[in-house]
């Protein structure tokens, strides 16, 4: 009896130990279990959702291009197998292809221009060129939306932007405040009246091509509205093009990007973004539509993608291996659309090896006040022996920061509807811990790679300004993107492909 109770006692202990052990194993596993935060995980879904938007210097429309309409368009479709029905109720008998591609967005939708009504358009937006575009994006999102858990999602977003600014036109606010016309100190390119125009955007709707079952479509155009694009990118014109291609049922979409600057448009940007599916996205003060059905938050998320840089865009091209945009107020509170107190926060790694560190020991105003190593050790920028100056290209402070540490350099006050803060980093051993390039040239031309970046932990470690004594902001990244900014350098071409893009977040 006694012996038996001893055995069952042992057995009980055994069961308990086992239970605890497996609980620990399972919870560790759950902690390491990631799910995709984007609707189209790894860009593998045949039924593509992609849209395009174009911004002027301060992320508005300003003026529509005459023949093009409001600069928002989308290509969203579903593929159905066209099997002849023996009962004869639905018959695709005349169909050439074994599949039918049903587009959700018509040419009429894409051509919508200010003044033309559409379903859901608010009366006050119909004749306001900026609000009209923002609502057109919502309308296109409504047509493209895919139901999913925990949230529906809409599309990948191709973003175009021109840095031209006519300071005499007084179109862009300064740190969110309206300002009148002023003479430019050679900061912004502008060839004269109308230099802030929107580009042409042409569209080849996605088609299924036989015999190799390849899906292919494209958006392209030019800021030079008189350019003849029928022969492609010829002559000294500005140019943008994104082609998407995929084998039916196989692999990832491959997005092939081309951007060219010209004498009239020397400062251009082209990105592919995973934006928030509701609320604001990075740099945009209107409700947005996008691909991130879950907003990734530091420190727990990773970004995976394959990048092949074909042409770099010249020495002044800031090719962003990873660009993230968020918004929080200097007191740590989330943004609410008030453009004078909201602050857009950006961070990006520039992988063009021509980009050097502007931050160094005798130029501290463009270094963040401190660097945080992965073990938590903080090193102040005046600690010349330990601060990794070469890891930083440029840091600039928000124009509405009231307790900035001197010396500082304020960010460009015009290029966003609200003040901004930017931290640009360079390949360096201090980022190796997070899977980022550690040497100049890694991931650059001739070195295509699949990256898995611990963007969450890296972005948690970066310095961003907050008023002293305020609780730290939640760093939620509404926009995660890749692409190029060619900075004031005419006649340069950047070309690259992007595929397999995913954002991974912990399961719970
Ligand atoms: C294009 O610009 C380059 C440099 O600015 C110049 O050398 C070339 O002649 C131009 N080509 C054409 C076709 O205008
Ligand atoms: C926007 O923020 C500024 C600065 O905090 C504040 O003075 C202003 O009242 C706010 N505007 C609105 C409409 O809340
Ligand atoms: C840019 O980098 C390339 C390759 O490293 C080099 O050949 C070229 O001289 C650099 N140009 C400038 C302006 O630094
Ligand atoms: C933290 O890391 C830095 C850089 O690698 C190193 O210099 C420092 O000694 C480390 N501190 C601790 C407490 O381990
Ligand atoms: C470095 O900066 C810190 C913080 O502002 C300051 O306390 C310290 O005195 C500075 N050290 C030197 C050597 O300037």
From TrEMBL:
Q: What is a single Pfam family found in this protein's UniProt entry?
A: DUF7705
The secretion signal range is: 1-30
Domain DUF7705 intervals: 35-505
This chain's source organism reads Prunus persica
**Name assigned to this protein:** DUF7705 domain-containing protein
Q: What keywords appear on the UniProt entry?
A: Signal
